[in-house]
Each structure stands twice: as C-alpha cells, then as structure tokens.
Amino acid sequence: MSFESISVKDFCERTRLDPNWVLIDVRTPAEYSGFHIDGAKNLPIDRITAEAVRGLQKAGNETVYVVCQSGGRSRKACQQLSATGVAVVNVEGGTIACAAAGLPAIRGKGVIGIDRQVRIAAGSLVLIGIVLGLWVHPLGFGLAAFVGAGLVFAGVTDTCGMAMILSAMPWNQAKSCAT
After folding, report:
1. Which stretches in the chain have pLDDT values below 70?
2. How many Cβ atoms from other residues are within 10 Å of residue 170's Cβ?
3. What pLDDT, on a 0 to 100 scale, did the predictor assign at position 179?
4. Which residue among 12, 68, 78, 177 is the active-site one?
5. SS3 content of the chain, % helix, strand, coil (to 5)
6. Is 68 in the active site?
7. Distances in Å between the alpha carbon of 84 and those of 53, 88, 174?
8. What pLDDT, on the 0 to 100 scale, is given for residue 174?
9. Which of 38, 45, 47, 81 is nearest to 63 (CA)?
C-alpha cells in the first residue's frame, strides 16, 4: 500500500474543509516539546505502530497526517504505516514548512534537533580520529574512515544509525510525552 504526500498549503486546505483528522509528529519527545504544531500528537518514529496510530484516532476514521522536522522521518513513518495497511498522508516540509506557512505552533524549551546532533557527533568523531591518527597512532584514522563510511551509507540508504542511537539518548527524551 502506498501513501500520499501533500504540501503544507494542501494540508491547511484539507483540514479546513474536513475537521476529521489527526496530525502525528514523529520527532523525539525532546524535539516535540521544544516546538510543535498546535494540535499535533507526539508519536516518535521508533515507537510508531498501527495500533499506536489507531489509539490516537478518537473516532477511528480520522485522516492521519504525519509530520517531522523537515520531511524525512515522516516519509519513513508513512512507509512503515502504509505497509501495515494504515492510510496516512505525509506533510512535505515538516514542522519547518508548517511554521513558515504560519500554522499555530507551541514553543517550549529549545533543543538541538537530531540532524544537528548527528552533524556535531560525526564531525567531532572525525576530528578526534584525525588528531589520534596524527599524534597517537595511525589507526586513529580508522575512526575517521569509519564515520565517513557511515555517513556515505546514511546518504545512500536514507537510514542513519547515529540518528537512531542519538534519538534514544536521555537528553532526547522528555520527562512526559505530550500526546
């Protein structure tokens, strides 16, 4: 089963005409608590299941729209859910596009997004590997090469192991998940 992707403009129009919908934000609880679209329910991508989505639908027949930071994770979530038979619609551009379009948003304590955390961690590991390779032992270059290979793999497969690991870290978990 496939899913539909729509622009924020189409999302606004559809939800204005049909009040029977639910918006699911698949970012980490910390990202969600820092900023989310008003009315969005948080269901992190690592916890998303057909049963969890159905649990967020009040009447069970609402259109399910999925959003993340910029569109990558929501697309993956839609692929997962549509494979289990759940009808979902991906909102392209994520919360960034929704905010730019002027949708009402809830702002909380600012957090560093997963994509930025990955760049910080990967860059730090490459730098450490180079420093170790130059001043401690040539095997230090192996760390930089390993991280580089991981980044290439992430780019080719659109799957980032480092992002999955960072998503599970305590600082990316909210004390209480607002749903």
Report:
1. 1, 110, 174-179
2. 6
3. 40
4. 68
5. 55, 15, 35
6. yes
7. 11, 11, 28
8. 62
9. 81
Amino acid at the residue 121: A
Q: Which two tokens stand for residue 133?
A: 């390779």
pLDDT digits (tens, 9 = 90+) for 127-172: 999 999 999 999 999 999 999 999 999 989 888 889 889 888 888 7
Residue type at 65? Answer: Y
pLDDT of res. 176: 42
Handedness of CA 49, 158, 161, 43 (dihedral sign): negative
Classified as helix, coil or strand, 42 is strand
Counting beta carbons within 10 angstroms of the beta carbon of residue 177, is it exposed (0 to 12), middle (13 to 18) or buried (19 or more)? middle
pLDDT of 167 reads 82
Instruction: Give 110: exposed, middle or buried? Use CB within 10 Å, 0-12, 13-18, 19+.
Output: exposed
Looking at the DSSP assignment, which residues form a beta bridge with residue 22?
64
pLDDT at 130: 96
Structure tokens at 163: 């992002």
Dist CA 136 CA 51 (whole Å): 52
